[in-house]
Amino acid sequence: MPPARHASSAAEFVPPEGSGLAALRRAAADCRGCELYEPATRTVFGAGPADARLLLVGEQPGDVEDRQGEPFVGPAGKLLDKALDEADLAREGVYLTNAVKHFKFVPAERGERRIHKTPTRGEVVACLPWLHAELALIRPELVVCLGATAAKAVLGPSFKVTERRGRVERAEDHDVIATVHPSAVLRAPDRDEAYRKFLADLRAVRAHLGRAARRGAGERETAP
């Protein structure tokens, strides 16, 4: 059964300034920034270390995530785990979140898995303060956008993953690389080829982090 909800004012879904991740997670649980909270089971906030060098942002939680309350624990999450491992990116060191924190879905018959619906631009914009708060607290060296919704949330509505996937972009204070969402790999007609390209993008992510680490080490060695 979904957790009980209480009435809330507009101020309650504005991320409190100066809060840590735990406080943000608690505040987001009562978010009423758009109507998606009504049918969803719960808010699915981000998860991972507060000092993560790498932050991955997807579109929204899916059916399994909505039930369990954690991001990327369903089929797409399992594929992501496999790809992260093959790219030498340990999930334990990655912060995972979504542009939209509530599951938007098509109602299903009893016992069937609910199918997600793409959030509108207005729903993404309503949820952006939470993502911005996560980015401000974690200050990752690199943000990876998984799919078009995440990429447009971070890089602007005109950004096209199909044209610029795998390239290093710049948004605010962050380097950003956009790729497809792992669920797109699962839906691809040629899943092996789609997975190969997805893995190549994550290996580019690993290479970028390696270069950043070497630059940082060089700066420390030459510092007076």
From TrEMBL:
DNA repair listed as a keyword: yes
Residue span(s) of domain Uracil-DNA glycosylase-like: 45-203
Biological processes, Gene Ontology terms: DNA repair
Annotated InterPro entries: UDG_Type-4/5, Ura-DNA_glyco_family4, Uracil-DNA_glycosylase-like, Uracil-DNA_glycosylase-like_sf
Pfam families: UDG
One MF term in the entry's GO annotations: deaminated base DNA N-glycosylase activity
Record keywords, A-Z: 4Fe-4S, DNA damage, DNA repair, Hydrolase, Iron, Iron-sulfur, Metal-binding
Family according to the record: Belongs to the uracil-DNA glycosylase (UDG) superfamily. Type 4 (UDGa) family.
PANTHER family in alphabetical order: TYPE-4 URACIL-DNA GLYCOSYLASE, TYPE-5 URACIL-DNA GLYCOSYLASE
Protein name listed in UniProt: Type-4 uracil-DNA glycosylase
Organism: Saccharothrix texasensis
